[in-house]
Amino acid sequence: MYHGLGVIHRDIRLSNLILQRIGNDVNVTIIDYETAFDRNNPNTVDYSGGYICWPRRLLEEEATERYNLECSDDLFASILVVLHLLFPRRFDEFNAPNIGAKVDDLNNKETSKVLRMWREIKTSKVWGVFYSAAEQKDYNRLLEMADIFCHV
Predict the structure, then answer these.
(1) Could you give the CA distance from residue 86 to residue 71 in angstroms, rounded to a whole number?
(2) pLDDT tens digit string along 102-114?
(3) Among residues 82, 87, 108, which one has the least CA distance to residue 97?
(4) Where in the sequence is the domain holding 102, given as residue range(s)?
């Protein structure tokens, strides 16, 4: 992640990642910085990114499509990417374009399903650890998620 440089990607999803294997190492390259933003800019921005990767806090609290950027938004989206790789059918059940953060969207079925999924992730014995790491912006702990791919 380029968070150390002040860059928040805002659209972390499978189609924006390239995996490159070099020997026993697998490197991930993030592409498509079209929606990236400088986190040092104090202005709110319109949400732009993968529908399923709406920041949970945006869906729960702000009830708006404008929000203040946080690095953790990219980190939470990374958790979804890993889960999507491992359990693709789980993500097939979403009608992603109907997920939203407008007040009218908060009570819709698709937004409710995403929020339920986040509650399940947060309380999971396995994935809750990574949820906490994303919340705390603990990059090293999140890096451990890659271990699952090294042993499969």
Answers:
(1) 24
(2) 656 556 788 888 8
(3) 108
(4) 3-150
Angle 74-80-85 from CA coordinates, rounded to 5°: 125
Determine the Cα angle at 72 with ends 60 and 117, to 5°: 45
The answer to whether residues 69 and 36 touch, using CB atoms and an 8 Å cutoff, is no
- How far is C-alpha 140 from the geometric centre of its chain's CA atoms? 17
Burial 1-32 (b: 16+ CB within 10 A, else e): bebeeebbbbbbbeebeeeeeeeeeeeeebee
pTM of the model: 0.83
**Which CATH number fits the domain that encloses residue 28?**
1.10.510
Q: What is the domain count for the chain?
A: 1
Partners of 27 in beta bridges:
20
Query: What is the Cα–Cα distance from 13 to 82, expressed in whole angstroms?
Result: 9
pLDDT in tens, 41-76: 766 777 766 677 777 887 876 556 667 788 898 999
